[in-house]
Amino acid sequence: MAVFELILCIIAAVVLSSFISRFIPKVSTPLVQIVLGAIAAQLPFFPDVELDPELFMVLFIAPLLYLEAHEIDKSELLKSIKLSLSLAIGLAIATMVAVGVILHAIWPAVSLAAALALGAALGPTDAVAVSSLGKEAALTRRQMGVLKGESLFNDASGIVGFQFAIAAAVTGKFQVGEAAGEFVMSFIGGALFGLAIGMVANWLFETIRSLGWETTTTRILMELFLPFLLYLAAEDVAHVSGILAVVSSALFIRFDRTGIGPNVARTNIVSNSVWGVLSFALNGAVFILLGMLLPDAMGTSWDDPGVSNTLLIGVILLVSCVVIVMRFLWVSVMLRLARDVTTHQRRKMTPERLRSAAVMTFGGAKGTITLSLMFTIPYALEDGHWFPMRDELIFVASGVIIVTLLLANFLLPLLAPNRSKDTSLEMTEITIEVLRRTVEELTGRVTDDNRRAILMVIDSYTKRITRLKQRAGELDPQGYAQLQIDALGWEKDYVKQRLIDTKRSKEGTQASRDLEIEACERLLDQIMNSLRHIDTDRKSGRAMWQIKGRARALQRRALTLIRRTSSRIRRTTPLISDDAIFAHSRMVQLDAFDHVIDQLYEEMTRDKYNTEHCTMLLLDYRRAESALRARPNMSGSAQTIAMAEDVKRESYGIELGVIQDMFEAGDITRAQAKTLRRNVYVMSVDADSSI
């Protein structure tokens, strides 16, 4: 029960931190969570916690690094791989030596081996903290690529160096050659092991999908279990770096995300949602735990009368300076040695490049891996004596973590201010280009048999492009979008009232009333789908609203089916043909358009909506009304619509292919491609649910 209560308290603290961060946007969420963790640890009802470093690595760090590596912009990672590896390996070793030598020189009570262990633990940067930096400061894609790449690869070097130094401190023997060989085997072996598992996982996922065995549940569960199993297999079976195995495997695994279809799209949407919730919970739990552990870690040394508190503070500041100066010098030298991509010449260190070096310096904050490594320091030496200065070393490491996190939080926004540039216009232009290329591909697939169906789908794409172009030129796109939503609401209210009146009416034959009811219900379903698609960025409450809307639609269809089946059994009314329903639905839609047009004219005399917005939407409805009236009432319309549904599904696959081509060509970023794919998945699922 104590463990369960601890989990509940941590989750509650994570949720609370998300609310508090909204009121203090200048303070990063990780710092808020650390403070909450420190406060929670002092509450009498809060369970005590002891960090098991091995459990911490497999339960928190492995899945977070896996997700970070899987979502990282691989093109940027490849561009900055040399700098990232130099920081992950070279700088980690240099920091270990510099901190060890300087700390031992100014504080002889700390042995050289123990000081080297502290330096090794301070080598790894915190991947969780790095991933949140882009929200607080405007880091470039290259800077984020370097920092994320370093955080993915530097854990192995830090862990191996720490283990080597601790072994030397415990036994009193330095074994440099053995440690170097172990590092190479752990680093390279972990990377190769992860790549091998990644190849097997890709083959397994593709085979299961091709055989039709894949379900949303099994796919998500396999994804969730993979990083845990991979880490444990690498550490306990292959005896290589579990962190490197997880990272290299995540970089290689792809899960066939370019496929399309209702099931694939639904699975990808659920996968993104599950990983989003899990990553937020684990991220928050990591910093809550860090905050809970810091008071006890620092309190033991602070209350020790045999150690000067002034000396402890001075050592923390000195070690922090060594770590920061070493990092700044290393990054500056690497930037100076790097050659320009186009000219292949080394560039001088301008003030702008020095500022970039400072950004990457303060972006390398320390965190949970450092503290978890320090807690693995043994209590006793090989000869049975207590490990000297163990509590003081943990105190110093905790202080450096706090200093680097504070510097990252308050200095990075000054060096790289986040001006919160509105990227909606850029995304609109990219979306228009994707839709335009999709239309071109569809045009090339027109035959005599599918001409009408493809032209119907192309017409829907053309309307989407027109709306996006209007939105890009609007001074207040939110106002126009709201008017569109309200206009669809007027349509819905009109059709719903007409449906109610028809059900209450006793005029006409039963067949005519059934035809009117079914036409109204189908049109209501179309309007509800349009409302779901009108703005995919309106996320708050959207999922629940969609569920309720689909439930009502299913209820209407079930009642219609029951009524028609009952009528067929009684043989009082013949079944209504789809063509008749299609023709009557068009008549109802024309009446609904007329109702909205009258409402828009009335709204233009009021002050609720912008007059220009009303004029633009009025023109759109006039054009739609004219196009609907111009369509001939031909037989076979229902078959054409069914064929158009197939073409629409095919068009989603074309869209995904266009997005992938643009991403591989470097026209869009990984984040933009991810957003575009998510929109296609949502539309695919919604289209499937409306059939």
Account of the 3D structure:
By secondary structure, this protein is mainly alpha-helical. The chain has helices at 2-23, 29-41, 53-71, 74-79, 81-106, 112-121, 127-136, 141-171, 176-210, 216-238, 242-252, 262-302, 309-337, 351-362, 368-374, 390-415, 424-443, 451-473, 477-504, 510-533, 542-570, 578-603, 611-630, 637-664, 670-689. Helix 5 packs antiparallel against helix 6 and helix 13 (309-337) packs across helix 16 (390-415). The longest helix has 41 residues, at 262-302. The radius of gyration is 31 Å and the shape is elongated. The two termini are 48 Å apart.
Structure described in brief:
The longest helix has 41 residues, at 262-302. The chain has helices spanning 2-23, 29-41, 53-71, 74-79, 81-106, 112-121, 127-136, 141-171, 176-210, 216-238, 242-252, 262-302, 309-337, 351-362, 368-374, 390-415, 424-443, 451-473, 477-504, 510-533, 542-570, 578-603, 611-630, 637-664, 670-689. The chain has 691 residues and is an all-alpha fold.
